[in-house]
Amino acid sequence: MRRIPLNRSEKPLLHVDQFAFAYENVKEKPVLNNISFTLYENEVTLLMGASGSGKSTISLCLNGLYPEAVEGFTKGNIYFEGINISEFSKGELNQQVGIVFQDPESQFCMITVEDELAFTLENINIPASEMPQRISEVLQAVGMESFGKEKFHQLSGGQKQKIALAAVLLLEPKLLILDEPTANLDPVSSMEFIQLIHRIKQERGLSVFIIEHQADDWMDMINRVMILGHDGNIVADDQRDVIFKDKKQLLEREGIFLPRSHHESFWDVNTGSTTFSNQEVCLSVQNVTFKRKKNVILEGINLTIQSGEFMAIIGENGAGKSTLLQLIAGLLKAEQGKIELFGKPISKWKENYLRKRIGYVFQNPEHQFITDTVYDEITFGYQLNGYAQMDMDEKALHLLKQFQLENQKFSNPFSLSGGQKRRLSVATMLDETPDILLFDEPTFGQDAQSTKELMRMIKELQSSGTAVVFVTHNMDLVDAYCERVIVMLDKKIGFSGSPQELWRQEKILEKSRLRLPYRIRHKVGKGEKYDFVH
Questions:
Q1: Does residue 249 sit in the same domain as residue 333?
Q2: Are residues 349 and 217 in the same domain?
Q3: pLDDT at 508 over 60
Q4: Is residue 107 part of a domain?
Q5: CA dist 245 to 238, 249, 259, 261, 518, Å?
Q6: Can you say whether the dihedral through the CA atoms of 108, 115, 111, 157 is positive or negative?
Q7: How far apart, in whole angstroms, are the C-alpha atoms of residue 104 and residue 175?
Q8: Distance between CA 298 and CA 416 in Å, rounded?
Q9: Is the pLDDT reported for residue 310 higher than 90?
Q10: Claim to verify: residue 298 and residue 245 sit in the same structural domain
Q11: What is the rounded (10 degree) CA torsion for 325, 326, 330, 333?
Q12: 489: which residues sit within 8 A by CB, 6+ positions away?
């Protein structure tokens, strides 16, 4: 493998030397397998790899959280500015190597923004008299200067992620690690966060280490790309354009998304519009309003779902998309109005029958895990329904292979990677073929290979008559697969129609913080006119 030449102007910042990591209970199967690389000052490096390959594990090892925070085993060495990280006192390295995770709430300890940032400063022994000035400066740096008194539950996903970044910046790190930081953000919030990182990197001269499945929106700031293979080895490490132009076959073999500027045909776009006038209505939502602690979340929602249709529910963070999905599934109860499944109020269905007719895949896969092994999770429904052991084994083996989980058969579901957890959460819904399958961010954390396989299986279910409903921030997925799209706006349905109609609604897209899909942005970039876009 060709390495980046070391005769460069930037100084080495962090060096990984023949480093391996394995969980204590599976020492014979290391997650990271004798990897070596160097990160340099003022450099932006992108790490890509298949879901479950160990990308997040690398980040947690780089700042010393692993193996201390888990039962893990390491060999080899990591050096920060020439010093072995094992020589740093507890918490010292975390100031130099800061991490922003994909879920900002996992990093918060306090109720309000100011208290959270003050807590960060207390941990590094900053005098109380200096805290207000430092907090004010960092909030201004991330564009959140007026949010100091706000409570976290009142912030959008994008705002929370900016505060998570602010807390890390207070530590004045030299290396900033971003672990899929935009995964939970709406399209505009995602772009705003990336632009913020770009600006702060330039202002502060930080080194940035980005972990992402899709590189498109980061391309302007990336210097270098590293690829982590399925076997835990670094299989490519070179300049951005060299990787994406010359290593396409390797990336495809590893199941990695190529930037759409280098590979436009990933999605098989559905340009035709399907009508469902002759299809049976399987679920109806009639004048539904939902409140949470007297706050109106959704108001006057009217919606029908027809057998065999593929529909998306989209909108900005906090628009009520997941709430609507949970109401449809019968997991939440409406304040007023009614929801009927095949003409019968869902409140009148027995729970076990309702769960057979409506499958629900949570945004957070952990919320639906109830057993200790992947096999038991997949076969739980079969066991309840009295399947013979041989039949259960046969069905489970088929699903394990389909979802690339056969090597995790006896693993604890909570020990899986984010992408593996998502695949397992979908597999558990397929013990029966439901009438409606509801997904909250189905492709979150998935590599290209897993995404394609997941969408293939979902399309098969749709063709057999299952209605499919996605809550998603991925406009390219909506553009390629969905026949109808619902936009949540101001607590109501602000738009209902085909994706092709939506892409022409400039005001709705702007209000909902949505972006046009790449297919259309690319056409416009080539000089093609698309209604309102010039």
A1: no
A2: no
A3: yes
A4: yes
A5: 11, 10, 10, 10, 19
A6: negative
A7: 18
A8: 34
A9: yes
A10: no
A11: -120
A12: 315, 319, 495, 508, 511, 512
User: Per the structure, how many domains does the chain have?
Assistant: 2
Among residues 78, 101, 80, the alpha carbon closest in space to that of 168 is found at 101
Alpha carbons 212 and 47: distance in angstroms, whole number: 7
- 442, part of any domain: yes
Question: What is the per-residue pLDDT for 268?
Answer: 59
235 and 342 housed in the same domain: no
Say how far apart CA 327 and CA 320 lie, in whole Å: 11
**Residue 481 phi, psi (nearest 5):** -120, -30
Which among 446, 473, 500 is the end of a domain? 473
- The residue behind tokens 């990933």 is 266
Q: What residues are paired with 313 via a beta bridge? A: 471, 486
Name beta bridge partners: 17.
77
For residue 493, being part of any structural domain is answered with no
Structure tokens given for 312:
């998306």
In a domain, 434, yes or no: yes
Task: Provide the domain limits for residue 203.
Answer: 43-63+91-253
CA–CA separation, 468 vs 426, rounded Å? Answer: 13
CB half-sphere exposure, 208, CA atoms < 13 A: 29
Are 297 and 229 within one domain? no
Rounded Cα distance between 267 and 204, Å, is 38
Q: Name residue, tokens 């030397």.
A: 17
Residue 266: exposure state from Cβ atoms within 10 A (0-12, 13-18, ≥19): middle
* C-alpha gyration radius of the chain: 24
Whether the CB-CB separation of 142 and 169 falls below 8 Å is answered with: yes
CATH code assigned at 389: 3.40.50.300
**Same domain for 233 and 288:** no
Q: What pLDDT score was predicted for residue 272?
A: 42
- 294: which 2 tokens? 């007297």
- 145 and 218 share one domain: yes
The CA distance from 99 to 284, in Å, is 44
Q: Tell me: pLDDT of 504 over 70.
A: yes
- pLDDT single digits (tens) 216-268: 999 999 999 999 998 899 999 999 999 999 999 999 999 999 998 766 556 65
| Helices and strands (H, E) in the chain, number of each type | 18, 20
Cα 441 to Cα 474: distance, rounded to the nearest angstrom: 9
Same domain, 217 and 287: no
